[in-house]
Amino acid sequence: MASQCRRTPLSSAWAAHESWTTRRTNEFRVVEPILGAVREAGLGGAEAAVHYRMIGDTRLAYVGQQAAFLMFDADARAADDSAWNREYRLVDPQHFPNVTRLSGELAEVTDDQIFDATVVALISAGEGGKPHCGYRGDGCQSWADVPSPLHPSTSASLG
Questions:
Q1: Number of structural domains the chain divides into
Q2: Helix spans in the chain (H)
Q3: Which domain, by its residues, includes 47?
Q4: Could you give the CA distance from residue 45 to residue 68 in angstroms, rounded to a whole number?
Q5: Cα–Cα distances in Å, from 130 out to 8, 117, 118, 133?
Q6: CATH code: domain of residue 68
Q7: What are 106-144's pLDDT values in tens digits?
Q8: 64: which residues sit within 8 A by CB, 6+ positions away?
Q9: In sequence order, what are the residues at sequence separation of 6 or more whose Cβ sits closer than 8 angstroms to the Cβ of residue 43?
Q10: Of 32, 38, 49, 84, which one has the greatest count of Cβ atoms within 10 A?
Q11: Is the pTM of this model over 0.90?
Q12: 74 and 142 belong to one structural domain
């Protein structure tokens, strides 16, 4: 199902730009099996709804990102695509040891692998028990509590 979702025509990405939802039968045909998968993972009620929306919004964001990339001129796209084989292999190993160790593997990753891994991770998030999403008050951890270099209130704790 993940690969089928990724192959959504770019016209659908444009439709998503116009509105988050189409409110039509084809949208419901996409929503139904995803909700089924979320429920099959053991989630119900508000948990299932939040996880579906997380999956759906991530899918729309990914398709939108791909559509935006295709709007760049051919030279810009080629330079971006080749960065994994050029610049990432030339970094200073003293400053970027992890990039150096994985530069070959980073260059081999495909868009299909990224999308499939994202969908699997999002669906699997509900299979492990209590989700970490911050939408209920019974001990569910908020993402705001997770240290992140992108979150100003927690970046100091990262050293």
A1: 2
A2: 2-6, 10-18, 25-40, 45-71, 74-82, 97-108, 111-124, 152-155
A3: 2-128
A4: 35
A5: 31, 21, 19, 9
A6: 1.10.357.10
A7: 999 988 898 888 877 876 776 654 444 443 444 444 434
A8: 13, 16, 17
A9: 51, 126, 131
A10: 38
A11: no
A12: no
